[in-house]
Amino acid sequence: MSVPVADLDHVRYSYPGDARLTLDDVSWQIDDGAFVLVIGRSGSGKSTLLRCLNGLVPHFSGGRFGGMVRVGEIDTRAVAPRDLARQVGFVFQDPEAQMLTDRVDDEIAFGLEQQGVPRSTMRKRVEEMLDLMGLAHLRDRSPSTLSGGERQRVAIASAMATHPGILVLDEPTSQLDPWGAEEVVAAVGRLNDDLGLTIVLAEHRLERVLSHADSVRLLDPSGDVIDGSAREIAGIVNPVALPPVSALARALGWAEIPLSVKEMRTHAAMREVRTALRDRSPEPRRCNIGGPLLRLRGAATSHGKHAIFRDVNLDVHEGEFVALMGRNGSGKTTLLRSVLGFQKLTAGVLEFDGVDRTRMDAGSLRGAIAYVPQQPSSLFFHERLADELLYTARARRVEVDVNELLARVDLGWAAERHPSDLSVGERQRAAIATVLAGRPKMLVLDEPTRGMDPWHKRQLMSVLERVRESGVGVLMATHDVEMVAGVADRVVLLGDGSVVAEGTPEEVLSGSLSFTTQINKVLGGSWLTVEQVVDALG
Amino acid sequence: MNADRLDSRTWLVWGLCAMVPMLVSRHPLVVLEMLAIVIAVRLVWAGRLVQGWSWIARMAGVFVVVGVLFNALTVHAGNQVLFTIPEGIPLIGGRVTLNAVVYGLVSGVAMLTLVLTGTTVAAGMRWSELVRTLPPRVAPIAVAGSVAWSFLPGASRAFVDIRESQISRGHQIRGARDVPRLVVPLIEGGLERALTMSEALEARGFGASGTSGESSSAARWPALAAIAGLVIGAYALAMGRELVAALSAVVVVGAVVILVRSGGQATARVERYREERWSTADRVVAATAVPGLAGFLWRQATAGDAVVFNPYPNLDIPSLDVFMVLSLALLLVPAAIAPLPEAAP
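YS: structure for the whole thing
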């Protein structure tokens, strides 16, 4: 019988000023050496549950707390989180917000210094962590110069330096690109496999982690909790939340649900599927594309002597959805800023709506191209969401039906709500409604699915489909291959500042090893999404 | 001589020595000499410390224009009258003199030199290095300062993002009335980041009991003595009681020494990962900067009108004090210590 390393006993908790119980009579035992995955929609209490393990709830958050949490022999009610850092390492969502010093090795040593660990031990531990996390070559770099994945590995090394019994990670990959996420999940998997460290991980991107998990705890905003093995949970959770290979197996009614591409490829029922799809291809997409809106020819820009992008040709038409993809640093965000008039082109031509705007600034567009930034809260300064929409309409001197527009983004109920009270996914849709109130001809979005749960992502996809159908051109920078495969009409792939591929999602995404969907990795051809395969198989 | 880098404490010492002349003197030769010294140090360490000079040119323009305009329009003294604004106009009405223009110009350049010195020091310094050298008792405050400092780049990026988001929305930024539209999202985002950072500090063991001493009550009395000595000393100085003020100063210094020493004992368990050591280059910079400043201050105190520039009521050519100029030239030493080429970024 395995030994519990942490034990939650009838825990009840509500945040200050909130009568609703976020955790209602939660009992949970975490076995020593287990890899536990915590999943659920935004607002289901995942982060709150994780923060109970290191005492941030209730010591830091305040609120009403009942029941008991024990970590080893320690009752967390009696010990402050700062002293529990020796037992529980904690890694947060945003790697940038948790870096405290200006050197990687100093960052790892920070917790040890705070605990008065002797210097000789400290030096040994720092070297150990640098090796374990593959960071030795980055030791004297400033965390601000590292990629998101590297920074998150530094955060894990820092949390691990005190040799805690449990490592808790709260959506550590939500702010990272797919390659950064891969690095982090691999590092966490190694800690569990090689050291037998107990891992408690809350995560939305199940395609990378589900196969690692020994057990899964599924939380629901209603307070319901289901515990089970990864395969048991894959059989009952809403398919929207599942990795595409698992969702396809569910849709096809398979008894045993594969959790990874490898398991899917070797599944007994795959032969039948491959036979049925042989010599076939997905139904062509129906799209109603209108006249040209944006036209970039030979566009280039630079920061000083460093070229950001060069010789870029890009078209967006009315009612067309164009996805801009590429690694971090490939020039996506700068290209969006150029389209919006915030970054001047050093060469080439930019036309919008038939007018040459190469030398015009952003103010001259007066909202004709609407922009939803990475942080949608950058838009909000009113206390009611409805006022945000009205403000945009006034700035653009147009009329707006606030209720109708909010209903179009599935937020018909939120007109009177403060934008800050909305969840990450709701805020993103609220931002879209806010800029659409100005009746723009084109919508530009920068990484809109970052940190979003799969349920909200699905809703966002529907909203963007509706926007496109209304004739608005959409240009979206994203790393989200699965989303692009589902909604985009055209994909532009940037690499090292130039366009390396352009075409329909089937043309650009199929046959690639990294820039493609799980379904394509299994089935090849032009198959990209679960829906395409299910439609083809009837 | 060359060095991989200069220690943060060295930058701090050099920065303080470079700033004091700008705070106590408006002598044009002192101001111009210090500007040249700071620019030379930046040029040598530019690859490490700063990127681009265009913002410095813009900043220089702003400081000089504001300095000249403000002084010329509000100070109506001097013998070199350029023109007269009707007396009826409040505040700015009266004679506009060349004396005021020159003084405004010198003040603008002095401000620019101060800002350049500050940004050079801030870029060369490492907060974490500085924190390690402080007595353990004040380390938490320094860590808090370091965290606050790390907020600035994030806040600056957030401001650009907010401004661009609002402009794309059709919003036009015209004046002060539009400021809340930029500031409200900035503050909300800043608070969110502050909360996350505080959680991270707590979860990473900041202020854990392993580092806290048990003699906080023992430190109370020296702290009270220091505050009392400061208040009494200031009062005595204001009342002209030099002896009482001097005794108070002795009490303050003694109390601070006790505080620092008891801080070290109380936190005997505190260990630092990195042992900070001064290189020869650090010693040379500090050993020249301090005498340089001392020489300047000594001339300020003893040479009288020879080192003071006052353009009112008569605008005369400022006198040159060779000793003072040579003293300040010692602050140029960091520029003579070139960064090691292989360590360049």
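YS: worth flagging: The two ends of chain B are 19 Å apart (CA to CA).
IM: good catch. Also Confidence is low (pLDDT under 50) at residues 211-215 of chain B.
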